[in-house]
Design brief:
There is one protein chain. The chain has three domains: 191 residues, Lysozyme; 63 residues, no CATH class; 42 residues, Membrane-bound Lytic Murein Transglycosylase D, Chain A. It has 374 residues and is mainly alpha-helical. About 5% of the residues have low confidence. The chain is globular, with a radius of gyration of 32 Å. It is 45% helix and 7% strand. α2 crosses α9, α6 packs across α7 and α7 packs across α9. Strands 1-2 form a two-stranded antiparallel sheet. It has a two-stranded antiparallel ribbon with strand order 3-6. Strands 4-5 form a two-stranded antiparallel ribbon. The protein has 14 helices and eight strands.
């Protein structure tokens, strides 16, 4: 084919394609503008995010927050905004609150302390009884071991009273009362609960200050009281901030009974549970303070299922005590070791090994010195 014929063929094909792209007979749309008519309704945009109004004044434990000052108001606004839009977390707080907050309120009233302190476990543990932090704190009130032991809580290889609802709550209230007596202010007492009384006392002396709101502290401690105040706002008026939890979805207090045991020996927790007419699983869920598979000796609280009617004191008399735990307190990790293998070898639960050694995701290394028991 010559070049001229090829060119004509290409031209014919091009014209055919152009003709195919042209509009057909008039349908009323042939004069439609190429750009959108400005008078046409706009496409729906993203939903408008509500901005909630903060109160002009707010107190916590009877002490007024400085909301008339820029710093104080913006600190509260920040903490409140972060929380109120974390919808999942707040919904869980609201669901758990009926199980724990009335109990805290009763204990606070008995101790003669401000009811606002009942919000502290929300910020500390999100109302999760058996929670552990990376820093080694545990329980609803997030006690570290030295403070827990100083407040009279037992922390051993078979019992961790930081996870006992009643024991840890009463220890926390004693500690808060001591801090308030030391610093003369609930704001400073709460800051000391967060970062330690020694740190607060040192900063008060260094900065020659007497007021929490004028004291430079670690960032987390400076935010602490404002976070508590924000939680109080949301929990006391959830409907005002868009939270409406159906009543049948709230977590109610568990129906059970509490006894105080003081055995002279340790017993198999499985055998004890079965002799009571319940299960190992049920007993462990109600008593997160019981570590491992042994019922500890000495005085401790025990929560029994509501339908468990057998006398635990009579049951103990019929059980055979376990032999005393023996063996090394420490172990150095060797090549080929896993946390599970070490747990089985020394009869220490993996959860206890993690807690004793602050291990995350079962990762251990050759040469690492592991604590096996207290």
């Amino acid at each position: 084919m010559s070049f001229s014929k090829l060119a004509k063929t290409v031209a014919v094909i091009f014209l055919a394609l152009v003709e195919m792209s042209l509009p057909g007979p008039a349908t009323g749309t042939e004069n439609r503008p190429l750009v959108a008519d400005t008078a046409a309704p706009a496409a729906p945009g993203p939903p408008v995010v509500p901005v909630f109004k903060l109160p002009q004044t707010l107190s916590f434990c009877g002490e007024k927050l400085p909301l008339d000052q820029r710093y104080g108001r913006e600190m509260l606004d920040r903490e409140f905004t972060i929380m109120v839009y974390d919808r999942t977390q707040v919904v869980l707080w609201l669901k758990r609150a009926p199980r724990y907050l009335p109990f805290f309120a009763r204990e606070l009233k008995k101790a003669g302390l401000p009811e606002d302190l009942k919000y502290l476990p929300i910020i500390e543990s999100s109302l999760i009884e058996n929670i552990h932090s990376r820093a080694g704190a545990a329980g609803l009130w997030q006690f570290i071991k030295p403070t827990a032991k100083r407040m009279g809580l037992r922390v051993t290889s078979v019992l961790d009273e930081r996870l006992d609802l009643l024991a840890s709550t009463r220890a926390a209230l004693r500690y808060l009362s001591d801090l308030h007596e030391e610093f003369g202010s609930w704001a400073l007492a709460l800051a000391a609960y967060n970062c330690g009384e020694k740190r607060v006392a040192k900063e008060l002396a260094r900065q020659k200050a007497r007021d929490y709101f004028q004291l430079a502290l670690p960032r987390e401690s400076e935010r602490y009281l404002y976070r508590l105040a924000a939680i109080k706002l949301i929990i006391t008026r959830p409907g005002a901030y868009g939270f409406r939890i159906p009543d049948d979805q709230l977590y109610r207090p568990l129906s059970n009974r509490r006894v105080v045991l003081n055995p002279n020996h340790e017993y198999s927790l499985t055998d004890f549970a079965l002799a009571l007419g319940t299960t190992y699983h049920a007993l462990k869920k109600l008593n997160p303070q019981l570590i491992g598979r042994r019922l500890p000796r000495g005085r401790f609280n025990l929560v029994l299922p509501e339908d468990c009617r057998r006398d635990p004191f009579l049951v103990l008399k019929k059980l055979t005590p376990l032999p005393e735990l023996s063996g090394p307190r420490f172990y150095t990790v060797r090549r080929g070791d896993t946390l599970g293998a070490i747990s089985r070898r020394f009869h220490v639960p993996t959860a206890r090994l993690r807690a004793l050694n602050r291990i995350k995701k079962d990762r251990i290394r050759i040469g690492q010195r592991l604590r096996l028991r207290e």
